[in-house]
Write a structure and sequence with these properties.
single chain, about 220 residues, mainly alpha, disordered N terminus
């Protein structure tokens, strides 16, 4: 897995919350300038474009309200905040319509990952299999992979974003890689079986057609 190169800023990124010209306001603006693009990319890879814009705005609103808690290395903290907000939204959806929400989340995962990975182009068969493998992972396992492979965080910062220790994150990442490899192996095996079945069916049809053609020729002579 490689990180997508496209990290362009959102077309209409929300503005930081209004406030007076004071140190707090200046720090919030500095945080926004430094990290809004990365937070938007994080959100866009996990939900639809309109929801991503809202998630960025909510994340920086939380940062404004809890500015004294934002650490010097702010990006993992912002990712963690965005992740919690997104999880809260999804829990609300699940309460309203549990089955519909589950199906929608799976589709959103595949669509979001596919859009980021493909950059609007059609994915290869391997790419499609990768997306299905990622969608099949547990959310925590998938997030561990995405934070390192797509968001480009080293394990210590990714652990902060996930709210766990570095040792726990390493365990999650190792487990996620093993499960993804197993899922991809199952996808490859299923594809090979399907291809073999197609070739066998095609060969049988060709043989039947040849036999029928021979019978017709014999009947004519």
């Amino acid at each position: 897995m490689t990180a997508p190169a496209d990290r362009a800023a959102p077309a209409a990124a929300p503005s930081p919350p209004a406030g007076g010209a004071d140190p707090a306001r200046a720090r919030l603006e500095a945080l926004y300038v430094a990290h809004a693009v990365a937070v938007h990319a994080y959100a866009r890879r996990r939900t639809d474009p309109a929801s991503a814009e809202d998630l960025v705005a909510e994340t920086f609103l939380v940062a404004w309200r809890r500015l004294d808690r934002v650490p010097a290395d702010a990006l993992p903290w912002l990712y963690a905040t965005a992740g919690r907000l997104l999880a809260n939204h999804r829990r609300g959806e699940a309460r309203r319509a549990a089955l519909a929400a589950r199906v929608g989340r799976e589709r959103a995962v595949v669509a979001g990952i596919g859009g980021a990975a493909a950059g609007g182009t059609e994915l290869s068969d391997d790419g499609e299999r990768l997306l299905r493998g990622l969608a099949a992972l547990r959310p925590a396992d998938r997030e561990a992979l995405l934070l390192t492979a797509w968001e480009g965080l080293e394990p210590a910062r990714a652990a902060t974003a996930m709210g766990c220790t570095k040792a726990t994150f390493h365990v999650r990442l190792h487990r996620a890689r093993r499960r993804l490899e197993a899922a991809l192996e199952r996808e490859r095996a299923a594809a090979e079986v399907q291809a073999s079945a197609g070739r066998a069916t095609g060969g049988g049809v060709d043989a039947d057609a040849a036999a029928a053609s021979g019978s017709i020729e014999e009947a004519r002579t």
